[in-house]
Design goal:
alpha+beta; 5-stranded antiparallel sheet; 15 helices; binds flavin-adenine dinucleotide
């Protein structure tokens, strides 16, 4: 690979407006890092694009020379797909523009935006784009995989709110797609991840919202069963305005945590209510009655507070490993398994996340987008976080073991953005009855699988150049 990367560098240098960083460049070490410290890879060249023409040139020359290429927006791929050893990284971090049309309640943003920049721009006029829960996550990777967050039940997945994409295809051409133009590609990009090209612009729908009611509380280990039994029943009929996520983890040793819970296994509930405060109160109070009375809080917070409150909980550079799946129902045996998982947590950064989908995301027809299962309400994710490489085996082993325990209760399917890099065999499972259509669209738009560092949909008769 080194010689071809040299040639790529020479060919690009002539016309590239952004930065070309080789390992000897003074900023290379800073720019090469991605969020997940498990993937400290060393690309041969990082092409930090200044405009769409830079992206086109990088794609065209890399594809023609068969150079392994990763695409990076926010660098938050849990699976480490936005970097590689020896090859090219097309880095979009200079393409961070957001244009809001407040009257039309529409926005356009470019392919390198982080969620926080979109939130700030849209909030200036009291609008929101429904996205994820950590503002330093890249919007491109999140939206292309689907995009779940606090407002999914109210406004649908992020990809459900996209009206058009502009992308650089594997042959370097610029392609637009929406419900009228290249409709197959438009379908595939809403959930299909980075398989089809480098998206340089998203056109999205916005919704009015400035604040929400946020209620939080902790439930002790002994009451987790009661909480989960209540949660599964309560959420089945809960209004779309309510999102209730539960994290099973070790309670932090902090003053705000009741002394008898500190360092102990707990269930942390976070509830977000998007309707009127008065109406929300009864739902929130019922839910909070399942929590330790000294741990509960309920208050109105700004949308920007909501979107940034988890930022420090997921720091860059730690080591992370995740596995996830869908449950049709949360049966008693699964609740037992979850309780066993929380008492065996290997570190205080490690957790089991339980989310209840449903709402607007489930109202959209299954065939309308490539996104995986909309019908399974429960998403279970096991996320390990640690810092010492010596603890890799213990953490990865814990996630795999717990996943294997939970697997029999899971229905086939997985949300692609919550997969680790060693799960390529689960990608067909993620798309299930949509798989053949995905393969056909991939074969048409990227027949040599140039875009393959992703939850990959291989084209038919792949011949990697
Ligand atoms: C801290 C944290 C919080 C998260 N929270 C949520 C959440 O609330 N909801 C949720 O749904 N997900 C969440 N995720 C998962 C997240 O959606 C994925 O990790 C997503 O891939 C991150 O996007 P990114 O742009 O930062 O990724 P990158 O690492 O930059 O890229 C990831 C993948 O997307 C592709 N890609 C990136 N940009 C483009 C582009 N412009 N065109 C084409 N392909 C592209 C890449 O090729 C790669 O395969 C979270 C992840 C982290 C690390």
């Amino acid at each position: 690979m080194p010689e071809v990367v040299d040639e790529l560098h020479s060919a690009l240098r002539e016309r590239f407006r952004g930065d070309l960083l080789r390992p000897e460049h003074p900023h290379y070490e800073d720019v090469r890092v991605v969020w997940n410290g498990m993937f400290a890879k060393r690309p041969g060249l990082i092409a930090r694009c200044a405009d769409v023409a830079d992206v086109q040139n990088a794609v065209r020359i890399a594809a023609a020379n068969g150079i392994l290429t990763a695409i990076r927006c926010g660098g938050h791929s849990l699976a480490g797909f936005s970097t590689c050893d020896g090859g090219l990284v097309i880095d979009l971090s200079k393409l961070r523009q957001v244009y809001v049309d407040s009257e039309a309640r529409r926005a356009k943003f470019t392919g390198g935006c982080l969620l926080g920049s979109i939130d700030k721009a849209t909030q200036q006029v009291g609008l929101i784009f429904p996205s994820g829960v950590v503002s330093h996550t890249g919007a491109s990777g999140l939206v292309l995989g689907g995009g779940t967050g606090w407002l999914t039940r109210r406004f649908g997945l992020s990809c459900d709110n996209v009206e058009g994409f502009t992308l650089v295809a594997a042959d370097g051409s610029v392609v637009r797609c929406n419900s009228r133009e290249n409709a197959d590609l438009f379908w595939a990009l809403r959930g299909g991840g980075g398989n089809f090209g480098v998206v340089t612009e998203f056109e999205v729908r916005l919704h009015p919202l400035r604040s929400v009611t946020l209620a939080q509380g902790l439930t002790s280990e002994g009451d987790i069963r009661r909480l989960l039994e209540f949660w599964r029943q309560f959420m089945a009929d809960a209004p779309m305005d309510l999102k209730w996520n539960i994290d099973l983890r070790l309670a932090p040793n902090e003053k705000r945590v009741p002394a008898d819970l500190r360092g102990r296994p707990v269930a942390g509930s976070s509830l977000v209510w998007t309707g009127s405060s008065e109406e929300g109160e009864k739902h929130l109070q019922t839910a909070l009655s399942m929590c330790h009375p000294d741990s509960v809080s309920s208050r109105v917070v700004s949308f920007l507070h909501l979107q940034t409150m988890a930022d420090s909980g997921f720091p860059h550079g730690q080591r992370y490993y995740m596995k996830s799946g869908y449950l049709n129902c949360l049966d008693d045996l699964t609740i037992d398994r979850l309780r066993e998982a929380v008492v065996s947590l290997p570190s205080d950064g490690t957790l089991v996340e339980l989310a209840y989908l449903g709402g607007a995301a489930a109202h959209m027809s299954a065939v309308e987008t490539a996104f995986g299962d909309r019908s399974a309400p429960f998403i279970v994710s096991l996320l390990a976080c640690w810092s010492a490489p010596a603890a890799d085996d213990a953490h990865v082993g814990w996630v795999r073991e717990q996943f294997n325990q939970l697997r029999p209760a899971m229905k086939p399917g997985v949300y692609v953005n919550f997969m680790s890099g060693d799960e390529q065999d689960r990608v067909p499972e993620a798309y299930r009855e949509r798989w053949d259509r995905m393969v056909a669209i991939k074969t048409h738009h990227d027949p040599h699988n140039f875009f393959r560092l992703n939850q990959n949909v291989p084209p038919l008769e792949t011949s990697n150049p």
